[in-house]
Amino acid sequence: MASTKAGNPIDWQPDTFRPSANFEPSLWGDRFSSFHLDNQAFEMYSKEVEVLKEEVRSMLIDAESKASEKMNLINTIERLGVFYHFEKEIEEKLEQIFHSHSHLEDHEDYNDLSTAAIHFRIFRQHGYNMSCDVFNKFKDNNGKFNENLTRDVMGMLSLYEASHLRINGEDIIDEALAFTTTHLESMVTDELSPFLAKQVMHALEQPLHKGIPRLEARRYISIYEEDVSKNKLLLKLAKFDFNLLQLTHKQELCHMSRWWNDLGFESKLPFVRSRVVECYFWAMTAYFEPHYSLGRIILAKIIVMSSVLNDIYDEYGTIEELKLFTDAMQRAIINLYEEFDKEMTKQGRSYSVDGSKYAFKEIARSYHMEAKWCKEGYVPSFDEFMSNALNSVGYYLLTASSFVGMGAIATTETFGWIKDKPKILVASRTIVRLMDDIVDYEEDLEKGHVATGIICYMKEHAGMSKEEPYGWPDDYRHVPASDYWHAPTAADYWHVPTFDYRHVPAVADYRLVPAVDYLQTPTATDFRHVPTFDYRHVPAATDYRHVPTVDYRQVPIVVDYRQTPMVDYWQVANQHVTPVSQPSVLGEQPMVNQSYG
User: Fold this and answer.
1) Residues 326, 329, 333, 338: is their CA dihedral positive or negative?
2) The pTM is what?
3) Higher-confidence position of 575 and 523
């Protein structure tokens, strides 16, 4: 798409006091705008992936293998991050296996804890209502989980991961989560093998269900490589595919970086954050697959523009200057959406841009209101604050924008569903809004913000300490925050239009984002401080079987990136599946054994 040029610099008043946020400069500099795709490596990876895909496809459709073997294969494919190549085959096999047994919980395969837990997790991820009664057989006469289960570390780990797909009212799964968490934490200090200890520690810090798909895949590739029972064909496919996608993502980021430079905001609006890499990373967590390249670019650009808009309103401008800024930004935003309109018109999907444009206007109005409150020192009631804050959080904008470039899968019905603001969307943005206010409380006070969720709530409840409101969300007044995940949103959630739920994005705050370095070393070092949230605990409908094909694990989770450690993916084209004698893309040593070359 063509570059979007900003207007002339705004005539800022130099003697005006401004609550500067003192943003750190971008950690990335201009490194990605000069990226050049290694076409030879890209072609080599592409050819290898195509050959290996067909071999794995043959394994999936093999009619001779047992159901348990097929489920283990599906689990491995999904954990290695190559599932998107085989969605049709996976769904057909799951449908066949699920309906081949009228009472799955009584099947002999489920006498093994690890097998039962893995199957439970996979079926639920794909929308099948597998009963939690399958775990009753693992309880003792007192109705507690049998302590002998603690001897089966992999079984406990599998049950722990499965418990994150619980729904409202499933007490046995709540018990399973508490049981496995307690014992796995104690096991870490015992003499577990390094292979098991590494998996247990990571799961406790960042459950699979709450992970970022590409980072989880990269991590599991290393774990699977140490597995003595590994399938070398699958491992080879996973490595080639990862490297191929990494090059694709870097090429897109190069486009984003050049687009940002063309905007000229760093000279015209030098106080705004340069967060192109972080915003692109957010979009990439919404959908990483290569066929959603256009969707990623569109979504990332909208996130960048909303970030600039937020910086001006939240940190810098006076009311008078904001009016000038609105005019200047409006030109850039109009130009951007005109590009999107042209692109979507070519696809016969011009309708897909309208919702995003409306949401951008909505968020701009909300930012303006918050700025007005701040300048006037006005503290609204909590209800008045929330009516505006639910728009300023940006959740509706990013959700609507995420579907713009997804192609035919996002229909007019999809955008109609978004426009009606279903309960799951309202619930999610309420959680994000209030969690953001909790995290930002001290910082907001330093900036002189008087209208935040905590301040407004305390105003209505005289004598309340700042810690007490932390028990909100939900109706956001009457129900503790921990209960919001079980809010009655099932009817809306399970009957939404047919599209892939893992592409419903979450909202992040990029104001203090450290380097999310997915382009260098695709290994997350420490997720202990990343607050994540789980949409999947929304009460389910009576039967998941009619839910469109979904891998719920891939739904981007609401993350406060301000505490995200350096996740180094972007620069090191890590662990290329090439012979040691062949140079890797950026000169690093390949990770694969020579026998794979």
Assistant:
1) positive
2) 0.77
3) 575
